[in-house]
Amino acid sequence: MKTICVIPARYASQRLPGKPLALIDGRPMIQWVYEQAVKAKNIDKVIVATDSEKVKKVVEDFSGLVCLTDPDLPSGTDRVYEAVKDEQADIIINLQGDEPFISPDLLDNLIEVFTDRDIEIATPIRQIDTEKDLLNPNVVGVVRDINGFALYFSRATIPFVRDEKDVKKWLHRHIFYKHIGIYAYRKNTLMKLVSLKQSSLEKCEKLEQLRFLENGFKIYTLLTEYNSIGVDTEEDLLHVNEMIKSKTK
To answer: For 157-181, what is each residue's pLDDT tens digit?
Structure first.
C-alpha cells in the first residue's frame, strides 16, 4: 500500500497566530511535525498543505514537500484532499500540524490496520487516566463497540456513570477513552468525505468526525499508549519549550 501523510498547516489561528511557524527550541513547529512523520517506515511521502506563502517558504527552506492550497477551503480534511487528489496513493494520513512530538511508530501502526479490507477510516485513541482529562471539554471522549469501531465522539464525558454520583470515582467504575486527532483514510473514502455537507451533530459539538458517523461511515479506533502533546496556545508553546530545556540540562 502506498501511503501519503499530509500535514494541514493553516497560518491563521485565533489562539496562537502563525502557529505553524511558532518556534520550538529554535525550529518552527511545522518542521518538528514533518521530521517526525518522515521517520515512519510505512509512509512513502510527506506533504505540508498550507494556505500561506510564509509557511510554504519555511517548508521549502528545510527541504520539505509543500502544496499551496486555497485559503477558502472549509476544513483541514478538504486541505488534505486538495494536496493528494492527483497523487497515486492507497492510504492518506491527516496529521495535525500542532503535534511536534508525534510518534512515528503510531503512524506506522495506524497504517497497518488497513490490511483489514473492512476498515475505511482509522484514528487513534488512548485510555483516560486523570479526572482533569475526563472532565475537560477540549479532550474529546469516544465510546467504541466490541470490534473497536467508534460509536460516538463527544466533548461531554461519555459514558455517564448513572449509579455513581461522585465523578471522581468514575475512572474506577469504567474505562474511558480520549480521541487523538489523527486520521487515516483510504483515498477513495477521503474523496467521498469531502463531498459531504456539514451535519447537525458536527455543528453542535464542533467535531468534524461526527459528519462521517452521521453519514454512515465507520471509524476504527486504534488503542495506543501515545499521549498527544498538542500546541494550541502561547501557554502550550511555553510548556513544550520548557520541557525540552529540562531534558537537555
So the answer is: 999 999 999 998 999 999 999 999 9
